[in-house]
Each structure stands twice: as structure tokens, then as C-alpha cells.
Amino acid sequence: MSELRKDPIIGRWVIISTERGKRPSDFVSPSSRRKKLSGFCPFCPGHEYTTPNEILAFRGSQKTGPSDWTLRVVPNKFPALQIEGELERAGEHIFGRMNGIGAHEVIVETPSHELSLATMPSKSAEDVLWAFYSRLTDLKKDHRFQYILIYKNEGESAGSTLEHTHSQLIALPIVPKRVQEGGRICWLNS
Q1: DSSP-assigned beta bridge partners for residue 107
Q2: Per-residue pLDDT tens digits of the chain, which is 190 residues long
Q3: Which domains does the chain possess?
Q4: What distance in Å separates the CA atoms of residue 106 and residue 170, rounded to the nearest whole number?
Q5: What is the pTM of this model?
Q6: What DSSP designation does 51 have?
Q7: SS3 labels along the chain
């Protein structure tokens, strides 16, 4: 399980998530990854079995089967935080720590591998915003979560490991220090 640790010098919480190091793409060279991106896609229709079970899905009017969706929300297969468990805050020596409790979800914005948020029909883009709203509304009911961030990595240079358009949502048990101070958050890929 991941955990959150507080840096005693600057007072910023960081997520320590050893599970995320197990992502298959982390062990592939960039040139090999580029080739792999244009191959099998777990977010394309017919590959639903390769992702965790849906949290939310918007479906077409025909409802012909598991691949009839127009938008899906699934737990991240390699989450930074886990939804199960309790926070269990504790201090160890000079460090504050708590279990890595939170939510980490993926919003697959369209079944079409070729579309992006910028090129999809306006109704589909509206559905993406409704999905964000639905997930925010649901997750804010959980008393453990203090902050929810929705973000989008578009393309390999932005850190996306899959080229199929998607966004991610992460719910945290703390409000990041930068947010408390009114600054912006910077996500760094390590």
C-alpha cells in the first residue's frame, strides 16, 4: 500500500507509491514505447476486460453489450492511492505519515481511439464534464477526502502512457500545501 509522508522541513505531503513502479511501460525504452502505443489499447471497445470494473459509464441508446459505452470511468490499474482502508495518521520520529488512502480514477472520454477532447463532438465533450461532475459529487461524500484534482496528460511528452484520450482524477486526504498557499501544483514524473 502507498503512504503519505510529510516533509518536516517544508511541510509538504508526498505520496510514496511503490505499486506505481510496477507499470509495464516503466521498463520499456522510449522508442519501444512509441511503437507499443500504436498497438493494443486497453481503453478501446472490446478490451474492457483489461481494465478494473467500471465505476461509471455512459451508454448509447442501443445497449448492445459491454462495449456500447460512450464514456467510462474506471479505477486506475496502477493507483497512487487506494480507496480501501482508514487513514491511520501517525508520527514516526520527526515525520508525519498516514496510509495512502484516496481515489485514483481514469475517465476514458470516448470509445474512439482517434479522437481527442478537442476534436470530439460537443455532446461528447459535455458528457466528459458531466462525468467529472458526477465523480466529484460522489467522492466529496467521503469524509476522508479533503481535495480532488482532475488532470489530463495529453501525449507521451506530457507523461501519458496511453495515447487513447483520457483524464485522471485523484482524491486526497489532505489539501496540498501549494493549494493552501494559493499557488499552483506541479506534477513531476519520476
Answers
A1: 73, 167
A2: 788 888 788 888 888 876 665 655 554 545 444 444 457 899 999 999 999 999 999 997 766 666 789 999 999 998 989 998 887 777 766 778 888 889 999 999 999 999 999 999 999 999 999 999 999 999 999 999 999 999 998 767 666 778 899 999 999 998 888 888 875 555 544 3
A3: 3-180 (3.30.428.10)
A4: 9
A5: 0.78
A6: S
A7: CCEEEECCCCCCEEEECHHHHHCHHHHCCHHHHHHHHCCCCCCCCCCHHHCCCCCEEEECCCCCCCCCEEEEEEECCCCCCECCCCCCCEEECCEEEEECECEEEEEECCCCCCCCCCCCCHHHHHHHHHHHHHHHHHHCCCCCCCEEEEECCCCHHHCCCCCCCEEEEEEECCCCHHHHCCCCCCCCCC
Q: Which residues are catalytic?
A: 166
DSSP structural state of residue 26: G
Q: How much is the CA Rg of the chain, to the nearest whole Å?
A: 18
Alpha-carbon distance 42 to 40, whole Å? 7
Q: CA 15 → CA 87, 121, 173, distances in Å?
A: 13, 36, 11
